[in-house]
Design goal:
One of its GO terms (molecular function) is NADPH binding. Helix content is 47%, strand content 14%. The chain is α/β, with parallel strands linked by helices. The strands form two sheets. A seven-stranded parallel beta sheet has the order 4-3-2-1-5-6-7, sandwiched between helices. It binds nicotinamide-adenine-dinucleotide and magnesium ion.
Length: 395
């Protein structure tokens, strides 16, 4: 029986994880559920799943949950950063699903890595921010990190076992790999007229053609910043050089990414676009469990198509690739700027096309000194957020 903590339990990945656990109750039990402010959802999850602990990051939300939870529910309610750190590091925990959205996931995800837990990584932003520090922490503690992000999960599945066992430090060339082909659907605006992009609304941006996801990652998919963050995520997980990583637009999202080998072979992982597949893969690796996902029907799929990315349409993608080449300071700045600009867009304070402009200005203007500690990373993140907010206020 694997004892699990779900960070981001009230979100989209949280729901998919709970669904996979529901299909395999003999193998997994929920030790703790963690969320930010959504009391209604957490209350429902506590009643349905009866975790030992429900942790609300927001202290007022924790108080409200305590008032509303039936007496004798058996669920302990906690709040506070130190308490969250203790929770993920607890000897009662085997596996941590890291599915908080954004930089807010960094500290608890890193705490789980440092405590040597098996970490199922959905929160790509934490790896984008902490890069080498994350990988070093993983190596030091012996934590097994498994990629939940569907592309990275597909790449992981398409790589040999010797590489799978050496995530973060792998030698792709030594394993005969020539390229990693990171696929992306191109999002809802792949074929929209370029001059219509500035008028796109949050509702339009969040309407992804293939995947159902949280609002931040949905906007990131529309700008293709998501593919950019994934490019950086792949750089760290698979220890790639820029030459080894290519982005391929694949509108159907049936192939979830591919690995091209020296001899001309291309290995891919395919499936319906449903996050329960990569989640189930990570939960049970190296075994296979029932995810509840419909089998892929090739006759319904019909055609698979591929395009080169258009950087004029998707400037955020080229910003991310450039930032990745520059190094960890630039990727930390870009991630922070993007969280602020996307939040402003979702609040109707910014045009869709201004997201890339704010991100680019932050990359050009925020002064970056080298990052040697977690404190440095958090300071650069905070400084960038402040600068991005100032820029947005002037628009
Ligand atoms: P979501 O918006 O649906 O859920 C976010 C979760 O994070 C919620 O449970 C929320 O309570 C929690 N959260 C938000 N702010 C927090 C804070 N300050 N402190 C603690 N918890 C906080 O997001 P999602 O779509 O489930 O995505 C979660 C993560 O997984 C993101 O990093 C995303 O990039 C990644 N991911 C998601 C998908 C997907 O299909 N949804 C696919 C690949 C990767
Ligand atoms: Mg992805």
């Amino acid at each position: 029986m694997q004892k699990m903590v779900i960070l981001g339990a009230t979100g989209s990945i949280g729901a998919s994880t709970l669904s996979v656990i529901g299909n395999n109750p003999e193998a997994y039990c929920i030790y703790a559920l963690v969320a930010n402010t959504n009391v209604d959802k957490m209350l429902a999850l506590c009643i349905e799943h009866k975790p030992s602990i429900a942790h609300m990051v927001d202290a007022d939300a924790a108080m409200l949950l305590r008032q509303r939870l039936p007496v004798n529910s058996g669920v302990e309610i906690t709040t506070g950063a130190a308490e969250l750190d203790d929770l993920v590091s607890s000897a009662c925990v085997d596996t941590v699903m890291a599915a908080i959205v954004g930089a807010a996931g960094l500290l608890p995800t890193l705490a789980a890595v440092k405590a040597g837990k098996r970490v199922l990584l959905a929160n790509k932003e934490s790896l984008v921010m902490s890069g080498s520090l994350f990988i070093d922490a993983m190596k030091a503690s012996g934590s097994q990190v498994l990629p939940v992000d569907s592309e990275h999960n597909a790449i992981f599945q398409s790589l040999p076992e010797s590489i799978q066992k050496n995530i973060g430090y792998c030698d792709l060339e030594g394993a005969g790999v020539s390229h990693i082909l990171l696929t992306g659907s191109g999002g809802p605006f792949l074929t929209s007229p370029l001059d219509s992009l500035s008028t796109m609304t949050p509702a339009q941006a969040c309407k992804h053609p293939n995947w159902s996801m949280g609002r931040k990652i949905s906007v990131d998919s529309a700008t293709m910043m998501n593919k950019g963050l994934e490019y950086i995520e792949a750089r760290w997980l698979f220890n790639t050089t820029p030459d080894q990583l290519k982005v391929v637009i694949h509108p159907q999202s049936v192939i979830h990414s591919m690995v091209q080998y020296r001899d001309g072979s291309v290995l891919a992982q395919l499936g319906n676009p449903d996050m329960r597949t990569p989640i189930a893969h990570c939960m049970s690796y190296p075994e296979r469990i029932n995810s509840g996902v419909e089998p892929l029907d090739f006759f319904k799929v019909g055609q698979l198509s591929f395009l080169e990315p258009d950087f004029e349409r998707f400037p955020c993608l080229s910003l991310a690739i450039e930032a990745c080449k520059q190094g960890q300071e630039a990727t930390t700045v870009l991630n922070a700027a993007n969280e602020i600009s996307v939040a402003a867009f979702l609040e109707n304070k910014l045009k869709f096309t201004d997201i890339a402009k704010i991100n680019e200005t932050c990359l050009n203007k925020v002064s970056m000194s080298s990052l040697t500690s977690l404190d440095d990373i958090i300071a650069l993140d905070t400084q960038t957020r402040r600068f991005a907010l100032e820029l947005i206020a002037k628009i």
